[in-house]
Amino acid sequence: RKEVEQDPGPFNVPEGATVAFNCTYSNSASQSFFWYRQDCRKEPKLLMSVYSSGNEDGRFTAQLNRASQYISLLIRDSKLSDSATYLCAVKIKAAGNKLTFGGGTRVLVKP
Amino acid sequence: GAVVSQHPSRVICKSGTSVKIECRSLDFQATTMFWYRQFPKKSLMLMATSNEGSKATYEQGVEKDKFLINHASLTLSTLTVTSAHPEDSSFYICSASSFFSRDNEQFFGPGTRLTVL
Description:
The complex is a heterodimer. Chain A is mainly beta. Helix content of chain A is 0%, strand content 57%. Chain A contains no helices and 11 strands. In chain A, strands 2, 4, 5, 9, 10 and 11 form a 6-stranded mixed sheet that branches. Helix content of chain B is 0%, strand content 50%. In chain B, a hairpin with a 6-residue loop joins strand 4 and strand 5. Chain B is globular, with a radius of gyration of 13 Å. The interface between A and B is medium-sized, with 19 and 21 residues.
């Protein structure tokens, strides 16, 4: 089983709609969680960290479910510019500062 | 935010040659640098972690004699792909972090696309 798994998609989303997707992790010692955005042939860029109580940044909402070992990302009022691959990443304190990435979820927002 | 550069951005080479990729932290001192590899439509896979002045720690399955990492200063790490072969063609991305960055955040370079003919 992969350490961090994501539905690869693509999620085809009408502009203005809401889309949500999850990321599951297998190691219960995982401590820090992140969502990154990666555009085609570019480096990943940090979108947001995910906090235990859930957090929101504009149209983006991230949540953590420790019991079921997954994090989620919800995008409201999708824009064409939201089209990208969204990577989740997990950090285990005992493993130092190493990030383990999921395979990414591709989102395509269409007019 | 902190800026990390990589050079070259793209390289095409013949099979059997060695390629050096540089990763620089431009406005902060990076105590740790990470090297990742990403194949098409796949995720980033950590290859190795390097701390300034010490030997790199390689992930399982990554050949340390093939992927030479040097982290000689707090602003520069290099990855040398020795005797490159077509299967080494990939997108190589570095990241850098500092003890002083919030949550030890990793700042990513723009990546180097390697094509081995």
